[in-house]
């Protein structure tokens, strides 16, 4: 790692060009011949990406960034902080350290954190950055993490792994065995070094597929940020043999919405009903969880249709998702559409409906936007219906 990039003059130039057009900057002559121009441009681009995602790094002086892609792929500070809330004890080893954002937050909860990274240059960058951030309880190790785990010969309170998909696995169904490290293959070995393991995977991983590859799964945390699912966290404990809890969390600006249920627990059949006064749409974390009957039963709501995943009742309640007041409901017929919606401006959502949002807009000349919301869906009698709503939450 070349630390010439932290030269004060170069750092001032980088900070002065945050949010600037990199393509235009690339056409300029390099004012710093001691450093490659592409390296300076990469720092500008990566730091720009970090502005909202990694405000602690962005605000600190003399931080060195890896590639823009590495910054894009790393955890945000908000999701890293949530992960740290799941662990306890004194020691943790991260087998896939990356840019170190998760470890920064783990270090706030643990006395000792080990950061393992196979890329030597990235390991050096992370160690440098931790020094700038004045973090003193993280030790950086470069090399194969499973070898490091063996050589350290320590019993850790937690092992954390964010396995990456192998290049030769492109086009295949996303399975943990297709990632590095191969967690299912090495699970017994990992449990020799810790009784508790936290695995981060992309939302692309199917929950049932993950459960088929793993064992001792106590909980699966589905983490959304501003209603976009960012990661699945698999909590494994060596001696656990009970049922798996599904815990959904949506981290939003002013609150955190949570909902949880026990997977495969016998639950009562959902209640169905036609649209009433209010409409409820679960957040993306609940949608990923598949707990459609569980959320309706827990909040005592009527479901519009088995496959619509929309709910209704007579009085508004606090709900982990979007809440609407239904102003009008009518069948999806030509005359009704011409009367109520043609050439209007609406936010459109489709749930269990044959036509796409784009085709509906085109067919009925509906503009996007405004403060009215329109749901095209199917009711319990298999009739196609339209709901015009006002958003409450």
From TrEMBL:
Residues 278-320 form the PG-1098 ferredoxin-like domain. InterPro entries: PG_1098_Fer, SAM-dependent_MTases_sf, Thump-like. Residues 321-391 form the THUMP-like domain. It comes from Flavobacterium fluvii. It holds the Pfam family PG_1098_Fer. This is Uncharacterized protein.
